[in-house]
Design a protein that fits this description.
Elements (H helix, E strand, L loop, with lengths): L3 H5 L2 H13 L2 H8 L3 H15 L4 E4 L2 E4 L1 H25 L7 E8 L5 H13 L3 E8 L1 H9 L5 E6 L10 E15 L9 E3 L8 E3 L5 H12 L7 E4 L3 H11 L3 E4 H6 L7 E18 L6 H16 L2 H10 L1
Parallel strand pairs: 3-4, 3-5, 7-11, 8-9
Antiparallel strand pairs: 1-2, 5-11, 6-10, 6-11
C-alpha cells in the first residue's frame, strides 16, 4: 500500500499539478499533458484528498490557487530544486570531453554564431553531443526549471521572471533594437524619435515575445502611440522577408542586421533614446561547474577572444 508521501510526490502527480498551476486551465493543461480533462480532474481531486485541502478554486470561469495550493507549489519547486542540485553534483564528477549538452536558444535570436561555434567545438570535442533547441521564452524557463536544458541563450533584463534565485547569467554581447523602414526620408537619419516611426504599419513578433514586450515598454516610456501591427512572425528572418516584400516597418536586433544587411530599399535607424539589452547564457547555479559545461563556456570565451561576436556575424554575411 502506498504511503501518503508516495501518493503526493509521485512524478506523475507533481507533473500534473505543476502543469495545471502553470496554465490555470484544465482543458489546456490536459492537452499539454496528453491526457483527457476528466483524467486530469480525477488526479487533482485525488491529490486534494491526500493532502486534505482544496488546491484550486474558481472565481467565475477563472481558476486560482488556494493557500494550500501555494504551499504545495512551493514544496514542489523545492523538491525539483533538490533533485536538480543532486543531478548537477553527480554530473560534476563526469568527464569534460564526453556526454551531452542541451542548449535552448530564444527563437528571435540570430543563431549563426552559435552554429559556427558548434562546428568548431565538435571538431575539438567529438564525444560531446550538442543539441540546439529553438524555443519561446516560456519554453526556455520551463525546461531550465525541469533541468531539460543545460544552458539558455536569451535576452536580459527580463522583468517577467520573478524567481532569479536559482539561476545565474553570463553576458555574451550588448545588443540594440533598430528601426527598419523603406521610407527614403529616414535613410540619412542616425536616430529617430518613437513618435516618428508609426506613420506606416509594422510587422512584429507575437504578443508576449520578449522583443514585442520590449517594444511596447519602450513606446510606453516615451509616451508614444504603439505601432499598428498587420502581421506577426516568430523569427527575425520571417519578419525581415515580409518587410522587404511589403514596404512595411519593423524593429530588429542589430546583431541580426549585421548578419543580414538591409537591401537598397530598406534602411536601419537607431531609436532615440536607444533600446538596448544584453544577450546572455542563463543556467542554474553551479551548472557551470559540471566539467563538460565549464569546458563549453570556456571554449566559447576563447572563440570570442579570437574574434568578437559582431565581427563573426559580419564574416558570416560575407560568405
Amino acid at each position: 500500500m502506498k504511503t501518503t508521501q508516495e501518493s503526493i510526490f509521485s512524478s506523475k502527480t507533481l507533473t500534473y499539478f505543476l502543469q495545471l498551476a502553470e496554465t490555470m486551465n484544465y482543458t489546456q493543461a490536459a492537452q499539454i499533458l496528453g491526457i483527457t480533462q476528466p483524467a486530469l480532474t480525477q488526479q487533482i481531486k485525488k491529490l486534494e484528498r491526500t493532502v486534505g485541502a482544496p488546491l484550486f478554486y474558481s472565481v467565475g470561469k477563472k481558476l486560482r490557487l488556494s493557500d494550500a495550493g501555494y504551499t504545495m507549489l512551493n514544496a514542489t519547486h523545492s523538491i525539483y530544486n533538490v533533485l536538480n542540485k543532486a543531478t548537477d553534483e553527480i554530473q560534476q564528477t563526469t568527464s569534460a570531453t564526453q556526454g551531452s549538452i542541451n542548449i535552448g536558444i530564444l527563437a528571435s535570436i540570430e543563431d549563426h554564431v552559435f552554429e559556427d561555434f558548434a562546428i568548431k567545438y565538435y571538431e575539438a570535442n567529438p564525444n560531446v553531443i550538442i543539441s540546439f533547441h529553438m524555443l519561446t521564452r516560456k519554453e526556455i524557463w520551463e525546461r531550465l526549471e525541469n533541468n531539460r536544458i543545460d544552458l539558455a541563450v536569451m535576452y536580459l533584463p527580463d522583468e517577467s521572471i520573478k524567481n532569479w534565485k536559482p539561476y545565474q547569467s553570463k553576458k555574451i554581447i550588448q545588443d540594440e533594437l533598430l528601426f527598419i523602414t523603406s521610407d527614403p526620408k529616414q535613410a540619412k537619419k542616425k536616430r529617430i524619435k518613437f513618435r516618428d516611426t508609426t506613420s506606416e504599419p509594422w510587422v512584429m513578433y507575437p504578443e508576449n515575445y520578449y522583443l514585442d514586450q520590449v517594444i511596447k515598454e519602450s513606446y510606453k516610456n516615451q509616451l508614444a502611440d504603439l505601432p499598428t501591427a498587420i502581421a506577426r512572425f516568430t523569427t527575425p528572418q520571417q519578419i525581415y522577408r515580409f518587410v522587404a516584400a511589403t514596404g512595411t516597418n519593423t524593429a530588429l536586433p542589430n546583431s541580426f542586421m549585421v548578419a543580414n544587411p538591409a537591401t537598397d530599399d530598406l534602411h536601419t535607424v537607431s531609436f532615440e533614446p536607444a533600446i538596448k539589452f544584453d544577450l546572455n547564457f542563463v543556467f542554474r547555479k553551479d551548472k557551470d561547474q559540471i566539467p563538460r559545461i565549464k569546458n563549453f563556456l570556456d571554449e566559447f570565451d576563447n572563440y570570442l577572444r579570437a574574434e568578437d561576436y559582431i565581427s563573426r556575424l559580419q564574416k558570416i554575411n560575407q560568405k
